Amino acid sequence: MFKMNPPHLLLILFVFLSSPMHGQYEFLPGEKELIQLQEQRSTGNWRLSAYLKSEREWEIFRALLAVANIQNIDSILAGQVRTHLSHSSDSIRSAAAFALGMSGYQGYDEEYFALLRNESSSAVRKRLAEAIGRSGSSEALTVLINIAAETNDPQLRSETAIAIMRAGSRGLRPRESFEYCLALAVSGEERVQPPGLYTLWRLAPNPLLDSILTKNSTQLLALTHSKNDWTRLYLGALFGRVPPEIGLPGLTRLFETESKISHEQNLTQLALSIGSQLFRDPAFGKLGLQIAHMRNDNILSSFALALARIDTSSFPEIRLPLIDLLRDHVADTTALSPVTRGELLILLSRLNPAGIDIGLYANKERENELFRAKALEAAGVSGSMPGFELLIRYQVHPSLRLALSAWGFTPQAAAVILGSADSRVKKDSLFDTIVLNALTAVKRNSMPLTLVVSTALSDPSLLGRLRLHRMKDTLVAVHIEALKELSSPRDAEARVSLLRTITALDREKGIEYLRLGLDDPERSVVTSSLALLKGLGIDTSVTIARDYFLFRDREWEELDSIPDGQQVILHTSKGKIYIELNKRDAPVTVMHFLRLARSGFYEGTLFHRVVPNFVIQGGDPLGVGMGGPDYRLRTEVSLTEYAEGMVGMASSGKDTEGSQFFITSLPARHLDGRYTLFGKVQEGLDIVRRIQIGDTLERVEVTGQRR
Is 404 in contact with 433 (CB distance < 8 Å)? Predict the structure, then answer.
């Protein structure tokens, strides 16, 4: 990993002892202090600075990783990091560029340019390009493009495309960036084509990009016959975001190609792209029907997902045949999963709200619960009075999943129904029932249910009526009791929602409990309380205490005992997934993941979120995406990238990780530096791609080292 210089004997010993053949890797004292500083998000009263001045390369490297994680650094510390851009070690130079990029520190463009032109290491040039993408100016991006265009280094050329994507997320999108990526895409070089197309896809749609692509449509369309699967996949993704005059012939040709070879991943991407284009031009209807005829979970769920946000009146000529197809698919309990059928039912309810009795599907007790929950979602999006009444009935259902679904889609239905011309008496009666149901639901002392109910009540579709309701004070009192009960770190998001609803209903009570929220042990509750108080015009000053994991001797002993290359096996209902954990990049995360695995925490949990061609997500004991352990972990970023089969920690924001994890089914470079990456699939990526929502993680087996 490190470039070894003969004089640095300690570094040689460090690398020797940590090599895979020894299996055991114990953190050295300096590393331990740096990991603790990183966990505290602290420079340690200049201790971090001292490590950056060390003569030991491994200490400098770990200190630079700490800087990348702390991110909020001053000019003095940034200057120290900058000096390591000219260090003799490739690894140190790479880490220094990474740290400056992650810190968002600006002003080093000229130095980056000089280093890029003279740097001999491809890996370091890659990190310099990344730093420019994360924090460089528009001018710096243009210079990087010119340097990359002149080089024969495919890694720098590819990474420049990714840097353009990162800069684009900051709003920097000069013409040169589009032209550069297009040049990569049509270059005929297999190593640089996919990243060029990937970035064009991530930056589309864009008027300037549309103009450039239209002028070069012949070259793009020629790529539809590429033998490179990745090139065709990202080309298909791009065709879903470009003007119809390019998208239609492009997707038509790709569909013919992928259908002949039955490439499921690429067909899944085409389903997303064709569905997305249907709202632009009804000419895509024929392709849409061809996709809809396929009895494949990933393909059909992707198609339904793409159509979920568009106006279904955009394709009237295929509406009736599509409705017939959807009815057949929803009734097919053998070829399709319950969740896929549920997604198609939602689409059916949007296409034909008056011609479908959603209650027949939701009330089938023999049906899979996941399908019934999707049926309630269909009731919410249908915008019909029967659908609204169905949701209200299920708000107090004993099944947590069904109650959550009912409450989650109540505001969407309420916005339509409560503002309609229906009987005022009937609407008032329904609203009274909602209030009574809310009292019952909050008293269940279920964190996810309380969170969803509180969020629903603070929605504008309900809030105005609630403020005038005769039971408002009772509702506020019940929320306050729930606020006192939900005291675990994992309940922080629910506490924030409760505070927001209490404040919306009763300003004075809200201010009282927001002030108490300033003393909450969870940072997210404190910062939200501050923001809400500020929004009320109340100025307050408070020091936010650090919430972090403080290592003790036994924790270090536990961490040191974890073998380098520790492997776990995910036993799922679809098969085994072999994962190698990376304790050097994410020591705290790996330690806690193994604790949970050994305790049986993950046994019988569901994969509750699946996005085809992106990620599968599991690890929630509640199975709904809102559960976790009684703690929150810090985000641990590293130089490792999100390729396919990478295992990361899910979060609701920086430093909010718990037990939920995800596995990428395709490369996802836009996740780099944002989510903790703590493992990699060694075997079973085909299983990852077969996982559907509702599939079970039966257990996590902790084995030995890499096989």
Answer: no
What is the spatial distance between Cα 569 and Cα 699, in angstroms, rounded to a whole number? 8
Question: Residues 597, 569: contact at Cβ < 8 Å?
Answer: no
What pLDDT shows up at residue 548?
63
Q: Which two tokens stand for residue 529?
A: 């309380």
Burial class (CB in 10 A: 0-12, 13-18, 19+), 188: exposed
The architecture that CATH gives domain 553-702 is Beta Barrel (2.40)
What is residue 697's DSSP assignment? E
Beta bridge partners of 11: none
First to last CA, the chain: 20
Tokens 């309609």 sit at which residue? Answer: 420
Integer Cα distance of 596 and 631 in angstroms? 12
CA 56 to chain centre: 37
Angle, CA of 466, 467 and 468, to the nearest 5°: 90
- In tens, the pLDDT along 567-578 reads 999 999 999 999
Q: What is the dihedral of CA 138, 143, 144, 147, to 10 degrees?
A: 170
470: CB partners within 8 A, 6+ apart: none
Q: Average per-residue pLDDT in the chain?
A: 91
- Helix (H) or strand (E) run with residue 568 in it: strand 567-572
Query: Exposed (0-12), middle (13-18) or buried (19+): which is 404, by Cβ within 10 Å?
Result: buried
Highest mean pLDDT among 408-422, 669-683, 691-705 belongs to 669-683
Contact 583, 564 (CB under 8 A): yes
3-class DSSP state for residue 633? strand
CA gap 664, 616 in Å, rounded: 7
Phi, psi of 618 (to 5 degrees): -150, -165
Q: Counting every residue, how long is the chain?
A: 707
CA distance 439 to 459: 17
Collapse the DSSP code of 406 into the 3-class scheme (helix H, G, I; strand E, B; otherwise coil) and give the result. helix
